[in-house]
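---------- Forwarded message ----------

FYI, see the DUF1659 domain-containing protein record below. Original note from H. follows.
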Amino acid sequence: MSLKEYKYESKMKLEFDGGMDGDKQITKFKTYGNIKPDTDNEKFYQVAGSISALQSLPLLKVKRIEEIELEEE
């Protein structure tokens, strides 16, 4: 079976350090949508760094979420 894949959009999910609650890490999230799926990872990461510089909390992780549809050929 052969499959075609169609990329629709990417989302950027930034995880921030919200401090500690006892010995448990608190994580805050911000998600940005409508990112072109053909954006290369370096540019994606640079934009994430620029956005995180505007935040009051330290950045922990940058995640890229891809929305892909699979279809049989």
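H. also flagged this: The beta strands are 3-21, 24-35, 59-72.
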